[in-house]
Write a structure and sequence with these properties.
Strand order of the largest sheet: 3-4-6-7-8-9-10-11
Distance between the termini: 69 Å
Mean pLDDT: 88
Low-confidence stretches: none
Largest sheet: 8 strands, mixed, barrel
Number of helices: 18
CATH topology of the largest domain: TIM Barrel
Number of domains: 2
CATH superfamily of the largest domain: EAL domain
Shape: elongated
Structural class: alpha/beta
Helix content: 25-40%
């Protein structure tokens, strides 16, 4: 049975020896694929389809210029459908029968369309490409019709496709859209990685974003990985998938993409063998301060007060505070502050300095210490509420006259 949508689009496609191309306003359109890798699986798990346009002289035309050609909503819809039609036809012809195809949906089509994209369901049925192999990417940008956006995403999900939010972390992105749309995958914008490359604080934020997205039920893909250092940052951030020039550039030679190799095996080996100080300083911190810490606890057990017991600990230039907590999490004495930090305290945070009777029961370092007495525990770097600076905390629970106490020591994080 004839379908007007396909009757309009099909004549615009041409089959060649190595795939399909399309014609639009005098330009030739071709599919380019860029592999997407799973870090844990150490292999390709999908490909993002990108459009490449060429003029009559076979000179490349920027995608930005291509998508500026439509002058009306119907033309926007036409170009969007033509690109997806082209990508699906090309991908269906490949040997790969397992991995995902990531497809971008034009934001203008999503925001302005008044009907669900029934065309796409027909396209998958016509080509025989299973919906579960499609990841529909929604570009992260504001829309005047949030209900239309939800309906559109729901349609693709009901069709059986996976959905992804693209460019998260750039422009107008926020977690509200993650909660509203419940995507399967969130693609982090490369600007997050660029900042994390130059700024350790931004790196911690990147790690936190990946963790929050995982807790929201989303897999996380980091785009724009261009160097080995950035690949290491991606691995350390705990993201699931990576994409970028460092691994593979987009190519219109589609058959070659299905045989692309990966250097993730070596990257993971290098990651494991890197200095633990760079990746996770906690073990070396524990080893370095173990004797100091054990000495302080022994003195406390023999009846010395906190100040007498912690002289050696507080004498180290990187130690900022020592404090004692009871089994219920309440601080039992005032905090001892090292001389090295006493003169550098920021007066803006003075309301936080007095921690007598403060309740630290929610802190992980306390829970770990109480669960395993007589073992030193150390946190990863975090922001201390007692001084608004980055630190790691060592903690050790011990018994003194039948009562359980926890000695804690904050060490400045560089």
């Amino acid at each position: 049975m004839a379908d007007p949508e396909f009757d309009l689009l099909s004549p615009m496609l041409t089959e060649h020896e190595h795939g399909w191309s399309a014609s639009f306003q005098g330009l030739t359109l071709r599919t380019a694929l860029q592999p997407i890798f799973s870090i844990s699986h150490k292999r390709v798990v999908g490909y993002e389809a990108l459009i490449r346009a060429f003029d009559n002289d076979n000179s490349s035309v920027l995608p930005l210029h291509l998508f500026q050609l439509p002058t009306s909503e119907p033309e926007n819809v036409l170009l969007d459908r033509l690109c997806r039609y082209l990508h699906v036809k090309n991908y269906s012809a490949l040997d790969d029968q397992i991995n995902w195809l990531f497809l971008n949906i034009s934001p203008k089509v999503v925001a302005n369309g008044r009907q669900c994209d029934s065309f796409f369901g027909k396209l998958l049925r016509q080509t025989g490409l299973p919906p579960h192999r499609i990841v529909v990417e929604i570009v992260e940008q504001p829309t005047d019709d949030s209900q239309q956006l939800r309906d559109t995403v729901a349609y693709y999900q009901q069709l059986g496709c996976l959905t992804a939010i693209d460019d998260f972390g750039a422009g107008h992105s926020n977690f509200e859209r993650v909660w509203n749309l419940s995507p399967d995958i969130v693609k982090l914008d490369r600007t997050l990685l660029t900042r994390a490359t130059a700024d350790k604080k931004a790196r911690q934020i990147l790690n936190g974003i990946a963790s929050l997205l995982h807790q929201s039920g989303c897999l996380v893909l980091l785009e724009g990985v261009e160097t080995k250092d950035q690949a290491m940052i991606a691995i350390d951030a705990g993201v699931d998938f990576v994409q970028g020039f460092y691994f593979s550039r987009p190519s219109i030679e589609l058959q070659e993409m299905t045989t692309v190799g990966t250097n993730l095996e070596q990257l993971l080996t290098d990651y494991k063998s890197r200095s633990r100080v760079q990746l996770d300083p906690t073990q070396q911190i524990t080893d370095f301060f173990s004797s100091y810490f054990q000495s302080a606890v022994n003195k406390l057990r023999f009846g010395n007060n906190l100040e007498q017991s912690c002289v050696e600990l507080l004498g180290h230039h990187s130690v900022s505070r020592c404090y004692l907590i009871d089994a219920s999490g309440v601080q039992v004495e005032k905090t001892l502050i090292s001389r090295s930090i006493a003169n550098t305290l920021d007066p803006r945070f003075r309301p936080l300095e007095n921690t007598v009777s403060a309740d630290w029961y929610r802190q992980q370092y306390l829970k770990q210490a109480l669960a395993q007495p007589d073992h030193i525990h150390v946190t990863r770097p975090y922001l201390s509420i007692a001084g608004a600076h980055m630190c790691v905390t060592l903690s050790l629970a011990y018994y003194q006259q039948g009562a359980l106490r926890v000695l804690c020591c904050d060490v400045l994080a560089q």
